[in-house]
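Weekly modeling sync, notes
Attendees: S.R. (lead), two postdocs, one rotation student

Agenda item 3: backlog of single-chain predictions. S.R. asked that every request posted to the team notebook include the full sequence so nobody has to chase files. The rotation student volunteered to paste the first one in as an example of the format we agreed on. Action items at the bottom.

Example entry:
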Amino acid sequence: MGTLNNNRKADIGKTKKARSNNMTEENTNEQAEQTITINDTVYPVSELSDESKELLSLHEQATQMAIQAKRQATIHDLSIENLVGRIEKSVEAVEAEAVEG
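Predicted structure, as returned to the notebook:
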């Protein structure tokens, strides 16, 4: 699920393809088709233009990159917190030695 510019909502989901009337094919042909919903209209991805498919692919890639960037930022924040703690302990140790000495 993502949000496109100009408050246009785009949902990527799956809908089931129409089932075959043949009972033996019904179980094997049940496949989910990717769709995108824009302004309450559902479009099968397979029917989009090549340009729209490319833009959708870029949107998905950008979303994944944003998630990865948030994870990396969290790792950096934790690293900074750890370093702050170690700096505090290091300074306190030096102060303790100065008081003792």
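Discussion: group reviewed the output briefly. The longest strand covers residues 8-16.
Action items: rotation student to repeat for the remaining queue; S.R. to check formatting next week.
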